[in-house]
Amino acid sequence: MSPTQKSISKVPKTALFMRKMTDYLTLDFLGGPRPWKFSWVINFQKAGTFFFLGFLMWYYQNTSLDAWVYLALHGSYGLVWIMKDVAFPDPNWQRKITIGGGLVAFFGVLFWYWIFGWLLISGTVVPNYPLPDYAWYALCISLCMLGSVIMIAADAQKFYTLRVQKGLITDGMHKHIRHPNYLGEMMIYGSFALMVWHWLPVIILAYVWLGVFAVNMVLKEASMSRYEEWAKYKEKTHWLIPGIF
């Protein structure tokens, strides 16, 4: 058995089952031809977010401050993602997937992120924030900006480092936490949920963070454990938040 196989064998069976199920649903569902890359489906949703939210504002005649702030946050993030994918694409998203897999990925996960904006802009939800509006907007904007920087910097470091040197990355954005890219994503989408201030985005994020992000992090750590320096690195770092978790 190879070192990689040994490390994967330590993964909880639940995580392996969840990954297998997710891969089937988003990559191979219904079989047949594979006409598009996974990245095309993701980028369609990311790039389309700005225009979708703008359409909602026009359709519902909502030009309130919270609608504009939400458009700036979620819409701009989608455009930032596109620039990231052009500059340093993630190899995991370059796999060809079936038509059924693409539809499941879009309507089963990505489409639900658009529900955040619909709840707010349509007036279905009228948030009653715990803080004054201006303070709450500042909190959401700060979370989104910081999360974007963390996610972009972590992905860029991983992409360019692994091009010249394979192995465990233990410096830069990965010096204190082992999954900075996931932390950044959680901060970004957390800011969107805070803007909407409704239970449904919380349910959606819990599903994604526990069913996808947590599983990916567990499997990633199992894979990284094949390196000799893993034990020392793990001992001095945290999953997501330095000194806490």
Overall structural domain count: 1
Write down the Rg.
19 Å
Residue share in helix: over 70%
For the terminal residues, how far apart are their CA atoms?
Answer: 32 Å
* Helix count from the secondary structure assignment: 9
Structural class: mainly alpha
The order of strands across the largest sheet is: 1-2
Mean pLDDT: 93
Shape: globular
Main sheet summary: 2 strands, antiparallel
Beta-strand fraction estimate: under 5%
**Which residues sit in consecutive blocks of at least 5 with pLDDT less than 50?**
1-9
How many strands appear in the DSSP assignment?
A: 2
Please trace the helix and strand order, writing H or E for each element.
HHEHHEHHHHH
Task: Give your account of this protein's structure.
- There is one protein chain.
- This protein is mostly helical and 245 residues long.
- It has one domain (3-235).
- 70% of the residues lie in helices and 2% in strands.
- The protein has 9 helices and 2 strands.
- Strands 1-2 form a two-stranded antiparallel ribbon.
- Helix 3 (38-59) runs antiparallel to helix 4 and helix 4 (65-87) runs parallel beside helix 6 (133-164).
- The radius of gyration is 19 Å and the shape is globular.
- It starts with a helix and ends in a 10-residue tail after the last helix.
- Residues 1-9 have low confidence and may be disordered.
